[in-house]
Specification:
alpha+beta
Length: 574
Amino acid sequence: MSMRPVGLPEIPEQTVVVARAAFPKGSLAIRARDRLAEVFVDEPFTEAFGVRGAPGLSPGVLSLVMVLQFAEGLTDRQAAAMAVRAIDWKYALGAELTDTGFDASVLCRFRARLADNGMERVVFDRLLEHCKDAGLVAAGGKQRTDSTHVISAVRDLNRLELAGESVRAALEALAVAAPAWLAGHINVTEFAERYGPRVDGWRMPPSQTKRDRLAQVFGQDAIALCRAAWADDAPAWIREIEAVGLLRQVLVQTYIVRTDARGRQVIKKRDADDGVPPGQLRLASPYDSDARWAAKGDDLFWMGYKIHLTETCTTLPDADADADADADVGTGVMPNLITDVHTTDATVPDVKATAPIQRKLAEHGVQPGEHYLDSGYPSADLITKALKQGIRMVTPVLQDHSDQAKAAEGFDKNAFTINWKTRQVRCPAGRTSSHWNPVKQHGKDAIVITFSVLTCRDCPLQKQCTTSKTGRRMLTLRPEELHENLARARAEQKTDTWKNKYALRAGVEGTINQALDITGIRRARYRGLPKVRLQHAFSATALNVIRLDAHWTTGPLNRPRTSRLERLSYRLSA
């Protein structure tokens, strides 16, 4: 398939007449075409298409279809149908009234081409650049970030189901790719009886003994299949089939293969004592190799991904500004627009997403002056690094986690006086430390402060200071700059001024709720991290188009929640 860069076609005259008559006040699709046509062009997609072969549909047109699809919460079939029967969609796509549209499978193939070429964010980034040029987004303002869970598009499997379903997935793939080879290495009739229907816990025997036996059968079948695939006489391309590679990985993480005293092979299902791979490496499904199990608190446990949304935020306008906005619809404060969408697997903690998000914002020239986040995002290193880049992180940092600080009794780190020049620490009793040892802890610089046993033994405040068996106090500090920034942040977040300021972060919860209601962002439509990232990028683009449309038409300050009496009060006060 090739591409001839043409962008959005000219709108036929008849389509314009009918669309204007049918929608005298316009619609989201019409206004998106009129105001954002330059966003949906073909040139950024050139590398994903060849120069030879039959020309395909315009990537610019298909990307606009996908944005409208997510804005209206449609499936591929519904979106393809709208391109045929919706007049405002025909206007947006520049199609004739008699145009028969395209098959729904085109959207699936288009997504696969974008994901394979790393172009998930092309449309989102172009819209962000357009908003930046229009003065709707700029660097140095206020932005806020929050995350939410995303459930994968595959069903949940327990460990026994995963073992059996992985064998079934490999058999299904081999039955299509290498049927003759497969028939020569397994008993097709026996395996078809065992793995014909999907492996389901409801169909498994209720007895634990029989379940353990079934687990061994799954393991034996997996080993037999893997040994055949990795045999010297097996074609090399057999091992490159994704389902076969995943079967081998599931086999390693689920079973232990040993040889007993008689030289017989023993297959044992792993338990907690045998050790299992960490969550970020452990497969959860043979049909989505990127989905992972994760937990948040005591109530939330899911398999899938995590998305982080970052948006601009403005403080609430005063009465005078609201009165001016009523007089001139479409003016007032700028709309809150999503500036970054970051998707990871479910096991990645929020703190690991902070630096990539801020780096992306800086690359697009929209890095904030103040970045509002919850307590899962900051660390001393990140706060210091952000300050050097001109970003002030407004976020609650974790408090001192020493036993004294947790119990609110005795002397925590704040009770000690640190002299960075002489590299000594003075305790509340006025005694100085004996050792100052720079170390590496978890790959980060730290300083371990130790007081002498002789110093602490006869101290009258010893019981308030330490419960150590050696009877001496030890402190672990970060380097001076990191320590000072962390201490300053901990002190600042206790003030009412900071608490009132931090209330601005709560608004991002409404953005996540809007993304959930309109685009269903908490449930993955597709399998695999690249396509889930593509889904989230187009979801964020659709939300921005919806917000821009509201800004163009009703104005962000013309809120339905404001009563008529309040509006009258604003006008009188103005």
